[in-house]
Specification:
Number of domains: 1
Helix content: 40-55%
Number of helices: 8
Distance between the termini: 51 Å
Radius of gyration: 17 Å
Largest sheet: 5 strands, antiparallel
Length: 176
C-alpha cells in the first residue's frame, strides 16, 4: 500500500506541474487542484481507486464553485457537515467520461514508468474537455441558463434535483 501511496503522490506532483502553466495551484487541496475565480474557484480533481498491492486507477473530475451560491444553499446548522467540507463543496461538476458520454474513464498506474504518460494523458483531457467545461460554466449567465433549461446537461452537472433547484434559485438571485 505504501508504494501505491508514493505513486499517487508522484502523479499528483506531475499533474500539478502541468496544471500550474494554466494558472492552477500546483499544490493540491487533498487531490484537487484549484484555479481562483472572481466568484469562487474551479478545480480539477483526481480520484484514486486502489487495487492493493499492485496498482490504482485514476478518475478525472472537474468542478466549479460559486461562493455566493454555496453560502445560500448550504445548511450551516447541520452538525453532520464539517465546516471544512462546506468550504470544499462545488456548485456544479462532472467526471470526464460522463462529459464525453462514454461512462467513467480511468487510467491505471502500476509503476513509476506510468507517471509521465498518465499525467500527460490527464493533462491532454484537461485541455480538450475539462478546461472548456470550466470556461463555459465560469460564465454564470450560461450556468444559470443551463440549470433553468432542465436539460440532460443540467442534470449531468448537478444530478441531485433538490440541490439543483436550490442552486437555480440562489444563482437567479445573484444574477438577476
Amino acid at each position: 500500500m505504501n508504494d501505491i501511496r508514493a505513486l499517487e503522490k508522484q502523479l499528483l506532483t506531475a499533474v500539478g506541474n502541468l496544471l500550474k502553466g494554466r494558472g492552477f495551484d500546483s499544490k493540491p487541496v487533498g487531490q484537487s487542484f484549484r484555479l481562483a475565480k472572481p466568484f469562487g474557484w474551479a478545480s480539477i480533481h483526481l480520484a484514486f481507486v486502489r487495487h492493493p498491492p499492485d496498482d490504482f486507477d485514476v478518475v478525472l473530475n472537474v468542478a466549479v464553485r460559486v461562493d455566493a451560491v454555496q453560502d445560500v444553499i448550504q445548511d450551516k446548522n447541520d452538525r453532520l457537515i464539517k465546516e471544512s467540507d462546506r468550504k470544499h463543496s462545488a456548485t456544479v461538476g462532472r467526471e470526464l467520461g460522463n462529459i464525453k458520454g462514454i461512462g467513467q474513464q480511468r487510467w491505471t498506474v502500476a509503476s513509476e514508468n506510468d507517471i509521465r504518460p498518465v499525467s500527460e494523458a490527464i493533462f491532454a483531457e484537461c485541455e480538450s474537455v475539462m478546461f472548456p467545461f470550466i470556461d463555459k460554466f465560469s460564465d454564470l449567465c450560461v450556468l444559470l441558463e443551463v440549470l433553468k433549461s432542465g436539460s440532460d446537461e443540467a442534470r449531468l452537472i448537478s444530478p441531485l434535483p433538490e440541490k439543483r433547484a436550490k442552486t437555480l434559485v440562489a444563482l437567479s438571485q445573484l444574477i438577476e
